[in-house]
Amino acid sequence: MKDLKPVFFDSVDKIDPKYWEILDCGDNVYYTPEFLKAFETANPDIDFTYIIILEGDEPVAFANTQLVSISVKTITKNIKMSDWLKQTINRLFSTNRIRILFVGNVFLSGEYGTFLKQDKDKVTTFNTLADAVRKLSRSKRMNGIFVKDFREESVYITNHLKDHDYAIMQVEPNMIISLDPNWKTFEDYKNALKSKYRVKANKADSTSQPLEAKLFDDGDVSTYKDELQALYENTIANANFNAQVLNLNTYTNLKEIYHDKFIVKGYFLEGKLVGFLSAMINQENLDAHFIGLDYTLNKEFAIYPRILNDYVRLGIERSSKRINLGRTASEIKSTLGAAPEALICYFKHKRSFVNRLIKPFTSNIKIKSFKQHQPFK
């Protein structure tokens, strides 16, 4: 390989369109300038930087970074540790909020942060990206770097981050449903379930029958933006961990760009929006994005179980091969047939002394265990 060098851009608009053509990464919607721009324009509180690695004049790799501010309490509240350790972490970070540089999209769950060209030496290229991230971190006021999320088949490349003083972190897995191509309808899917899981799916539909479901068009997302935002924020307030609040003007942008490929479905009770789901068609996958619901009505009207059923419906209707239901609520997702896909992340503190202190803790974080159901016959 020729010498590799990084170039940095603070806006998608500043990246030469020819770079995208040469990288040839557009089959994956998450590596398109249109998708990245939708997030950039709607979330001005986030510092976006895009890294292109050049071999001579030819781009060979891309990375998407986002610098965000996170509450320390958000990090520690749902991780098992002693009060002493919590106090120590608070003293180390010396403030109630810390600034983290995410390599990857903080709002997505999956391997969508870095792209390496297939015909290049991936280890060498990835190491150059790691050097570029270090260079970027020196120019920013920040506390640490979080590189996310990598599947097991990528670890032979990404574990070289240990040479750059990163600690490996386990995070909750993505929950994936593999769809049988013979399932043409939701009834076909239910017929493949064992009896008690079929009863569970039917109960979710019957209990949620008073809800009126509607697929949103471009105008609907804009019209109901405030209600969508409130329901979404209500949901992430109940989540174990949430690094950043997404401005749902992002969804208005995505809907205007991708139309039917970006799905938003609303659930109404007596004319009031009480829940929604969102999803992106990406190649042969249906990827669940954020949801929102009114938890005071969830038990009575089974809003969340209905949303999960409808993700399966949408996947079948769109002839997807896989449904990525994302992280969280792993056990209930497994009752629909989802299986875990392990993800690995990496973290380092910007200050080497602090990094040495927290590295053992970071490496020993354990993800919450759950019962993996086997719902199919």
How would a textbook summarize the main sheet? 14 strands, mixed
Average pLDDT, all residues: 91
Q: Given the structure, what is the number of helices?
A: 15
CATH class category label of the largest domain: Alpha Beta
Counting structural domains, the number is 2
What is the assigned CATH homologous superfamily of the largest domain?
Gcn5-related N-acetyltransferase (GNAT)
Terminal Cα separation, in Å?
51 Å
Low-confidence stretches: none
The CATH topology of the largest domain is what?
Aminopeptidase
From the spread of the alpha carbons, the general shape counts as globular
H/E series, N to C?
A: EHHEEHHEEHEHEHHEHHHEEEEHHEHEH
- Percent in strands: 25-35%
How many β-strands, per DSSP? Answer: 14
| Structure class | alpha+beta
The helix content is 25-40%
Radius of gyration: 21 Å
- CATH architecture field of the largest domain: 3-Layer(aba) Sandwich
Description:
The protein has 377 residues and is of the alpha+beta class. It folds into two domains: 4-172 and 342-363, Aminopeptidase (3-Layer(aba) Sandwich); 180-320, Aminopeptidase (3-Layer(aba) Sandwich). Helix content is 37%, strand content 27%. The protein has helices spanning 17-23, 33-42, 72-76, 83-93, 122-138, 155-158, 186-191, 195-207, 218-223, 225-236, 249-258, 295-301, 303-317, 330-334, 352-363, and strands at 4-9, 47-55, 58-71, 97-103, 114-116, 144-150, 167-178, 212-215, 262-269, 272-282, 285-288, 292-293, 322-324, 339-349. Strands 1, 2, 3, 4, 5, 6, 7, 8, 9, 10, 11, 12, 13 and 14 form a 14-stranded mixed sheet that branches. A hairpin with a 2-residue loop joins β9 and β10 (272-282). α2 runs antiparallel to α11. It is globular, with a radius of gyration of 21 Å. 37% of the residues are buried.
